[in-house]
């Protein structure tokens, strides 16, 4: 009984019991459905073992959308708890768990897979490649992310969720104050997912540097590819810091080391420094690919090439450098001295300059353009004023003296949501709508999509702008309740109404997918938006080999020039195409990592050691494996091209 007790929830509630039942019923329904429709073989051969970057991108996309709703449910519960003074919907412990899991899910398990989805779907097509540089490593990256996400998400039904905040500061995250296994889940789930992210960074950088089509120099790459490249360079430098910090935090909790303790030579502020040396560049890992998406969309629907291509690239490079020089602004109030605060205050303000350059680039692209107000364009235009407000409030927070007033208040919560939601979530939804027809063969309904945009935009303003006011009036963040005498009740109710509108907006996304799947035309061609970059030069659906012939690049808008100026993208005779084989090893390794992580969470040392051995066995077998892929013959390629509508043009 003592053994089973360690898996129990320390603070159960009716909502958690309902979640347990829901998880069990959904799992049974999935297994029953796959068995009834005899889809186990299809699932294994087409998805679980795939190394095709497009299918991996779709799996990232589905995972990100699921996590969006998972994190959104936490957000709604928090806003409902704070909607009225002294509410009893959640107790203090449950609220701590919810705001911790909300932050981790939204940043690590929603936003990251969203950007990886677009990198996988778009980058190889934009540079004219058949696949990524290391297809099997790409599959392993996804399954490690998935294993980490699933490990984190079972915490609230097995053992208890983490409750030390998404930053998990020590000593609060140590064994003395976080006595359940929740923080173990935090350390190990993010570690497993982070290893996959680091692999993706290496893979994407290699792909972009070594696999571009002939003639595509670095300064002829599409802007999204540039943004993906710089984001992945940041990943390569930032994620090892997180990896080391998580190892140290895990050993503190499981083996009694003293890296982050307040005694025995430990240094709790060391965790804060490590975390934000990763954490602030992480913001730009998310935002730079979003900037790339906005650049592609604004250029397409303005009917103009992107204004200031070189300045856009230069500003992204400068942002990537400055992103590593601002981490201390996250703890201005923690007593590091006036000189240190002043230095980081200056660097924080400086990073606003290249970001401002981009805003002007987009505005000048729109200027005198023939603007088409499609759903992706609405998100892109709406992003500019909303994100600018988020940036200006960031400059306010950059003033270290003023930060003493703002830091632990709802003003800061409003600021970072004001940057992340228009800057990342809007970009992901714009990109989702923009690229949906390329990868699913039909367009999402514009009318429903515009309704979603307005629901999300109005809901966002109502949800977060009141927080600026209550924050300036002194409402503390991370507090689960407040008294009626504070006067915060009315504005918090407005915030709840805004959050509810956003929730309705996200539900309409699901309705849009269902409605469009049932009613949208499949006869949309390969370029329904009259786009400008190379990913639209191939067929819809995209064949496994992407391009029958490798494109020949002459400009930064090769596809547009081919359409409008008669440039030949595809020349020469057809040749057979070499492609990588599917493999079940990445999926198997992902599941072993899941078992390993779960075993470490509960200090189950025998399965932990066995699973570690299994991981190294998989790696060893791969080292000796001779897998040279397969070839698609000229005849097969020609038949596929004929079936899909003729050679790519």
Automatic annotation (TrEMBL):
The chain crosses the membrane at residues 15-37, 58-78, 98-125, 137-158, 185-209, 229-250, 270-294, 306-327, 339-364, 376-399, 419-436, 448-469, 489-514, 587-617. It is found in: Cell membrane. GO terms for cellular component: plasma membrane; respiratory chain complex. The keyword Transferase does not apply. Belongs to the heme-copper respiratory oxidase family. It comes from Lysinibacillus antri. InterPro entries: Cyt_c_oxase-like_su1_dom (IPR023616), Cyt_c_oxase-like_su1_sf (IPR036927), Cyt_C_Oxase_1 (IPR000883), Cyt_c_Oxase_su1_BS (IPR023615), QoxB (IPR014233). The keyword Nucleus does not apply. Its main location: membrane. GO terms for molecular function: copper ion binding; cytochrome-c oxidase activity; heme binding; oxidoreductase activity, acting on diphenols and related substances as donors, oxygen as acceptor. Its EC number is 1.10.3.-. Keywords: Cell membrane, Copper, Electron transport, Heme, Hydrogen ion transport, Ion transport, Iron, Membrane, Metal-binding, Oxidoreductase, Respiratory chain, Translocase, Transmembrane, Transmembrane helix, Transport. One of its GO terms (biological process) is electron transport coupled proton transport. It is a multi-pass membrane protein. Its cofactor is Cu cation; ferriheme a. The gene is qoxB. Residues 38-554 form the Cytochrome oxidase subunit I profile domain. Catalyzes quinol oxidation with the concomitant reduction of oxygen to water. Pfam families: COX1. The lineage of its organism: Bacteria, Bacillati, Bacillota, Bacilli, Bacillales. Pathway: Energy metabolism; oxidative phosphorylation. It catalyses: 2 a quinol + O2 = 2 a quinone + 2 H2O; 4 Fe(II)-[cytochrome c] + O2 + 8 H(+)(in) = 4 Fe(III)-[cytochrome c] + 2 H2O + 4 H(+)(out). Binds a copper B center. This is Quinol oxidase subunit 1. It is an enzyme of class 1 (oxidoreductase).
């Amino acid at each position: 009984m003592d053994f089973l007790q360690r898996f129990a929830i320390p603070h159960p509630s009716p909502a958690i019991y309902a979640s347990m039942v829901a998880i069990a019923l959904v799992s049974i329904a999935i297994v029953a459905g796959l068995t009834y429709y005899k889809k186990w073989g299809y699932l294994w051969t087409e998805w679980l073992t795939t190394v095709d970057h497009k299918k991996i991108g779709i799996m990232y996309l589905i995972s990100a959308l699921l996590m969006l709703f998972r994190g959104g449910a936490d957000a709604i519960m928090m806003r409902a708890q704070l909607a009225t003074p002294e509410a009893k919907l959640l107790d203090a412990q449950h609220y701590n768990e919810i705001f911790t899991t909300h932050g981790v899910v939204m940043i690590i398990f929603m936003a990251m897979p969203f950007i990886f989805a677009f990198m996988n779907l778009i980058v190889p097509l934009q540079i004219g490649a058949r696949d990524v540089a290391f297809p099997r490593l790409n599959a392993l990256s996804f399954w490690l992310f998935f294993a980490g996400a699933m490990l984190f998400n079972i915490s609230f039904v097995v053992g208890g969720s983490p409750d030390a905040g998404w930053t998990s500061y020590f000593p609060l995250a140590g064994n003395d104050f976080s006595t359940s296994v929740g923080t173990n889940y935090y350390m190990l789930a993010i570690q497993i997912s982070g290893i996959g992210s680091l692999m993706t960074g290496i893979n994407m950088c290699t792909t972009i540097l070594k696999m571009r089509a002939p003639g595509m120099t670095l300064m002829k790459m599409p802007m999204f590819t540039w943004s993906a490249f710089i984001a992945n360079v940041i990943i390569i430098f930032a994620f090892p810091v997180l990896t080391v910090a998580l190892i140290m935090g895990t050993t503190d909790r499981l083996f009694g080391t003293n890296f982050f303790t307040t005694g025995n030579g430990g240094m709790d502020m060391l965790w804060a420094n490590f975390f934000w040396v990763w954490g602030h560049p992480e913001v730009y890992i998310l935002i730079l690919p979003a900037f790339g998406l906005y650049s592609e969309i604004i250029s397409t629907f303005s009917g103009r090439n992107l204004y200031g291509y070189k300045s856009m690239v230069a500003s992204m490079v400068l942002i990537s450098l400055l992103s590593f020089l601002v981490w201390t602004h996250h703890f201005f109030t923690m007593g590091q001295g006036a000189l240190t605060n002043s230095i980081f205050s200056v660097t924080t303000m400086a990073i606003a300059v290249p970001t401002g350059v981009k805003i002007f680039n987009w505005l000048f692209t729109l200027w005198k353009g023939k603007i088409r107000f499609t759903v992706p364009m609405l998100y892109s235009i709406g992003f500019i004023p909303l994100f600018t407000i988020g940036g200006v409030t960031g400059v306010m927070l950059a003033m270290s003296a003023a930060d003493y007033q703002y830091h632990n208040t709802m003003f800061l919560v409003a600021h970072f949501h004001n940057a992340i939601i228009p800057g990342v979530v809007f970009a992901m939804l714009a990109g989702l709508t923009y690229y949906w027809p390329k990868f699913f063969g039909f367009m999402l309904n514009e009318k429903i999509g515009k309704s979603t945009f307005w629901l999300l935009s109005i809901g966002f303003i109502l949800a977060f702008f009141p927080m600026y006011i209550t924050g300036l009036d002194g409402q503390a963040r991370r507090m689960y309740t407040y008294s009626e005498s504070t006067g915060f009740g009315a504005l918090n109710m407005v915030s709840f109404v805004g959050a509810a509108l956003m929730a309705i907006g996200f539900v309409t996304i699901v309705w849009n997918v269902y409605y469009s799947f049932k009613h949208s035309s499949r006869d949309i061609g390969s370029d329904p938006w009259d786009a400008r970059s190379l990913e639209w030069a191939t067929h819809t659906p995209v064949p496994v080999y992407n391009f029958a012939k490798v494109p020949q690049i002459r400009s930064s808008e090769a596809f547009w020039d081919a359409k409008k100026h008669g440039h030949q993208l595809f020349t020469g005779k057809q040749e057979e195409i070499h492609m990588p084989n599917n493999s079940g090893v990445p999926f198997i390794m992902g599941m072993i990592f899941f078992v390993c992580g779960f075993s470490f969470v509960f200090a189950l040392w025998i399965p932990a050691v066995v699973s570690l051995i299994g991981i190294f066995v998989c790696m060893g077998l791969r080292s000796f494996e001779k897998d040279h892929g397969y070839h698609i013959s000229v005849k097969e390629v020609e038949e596929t091209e004929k079936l899909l509508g003729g050679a790519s043009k």
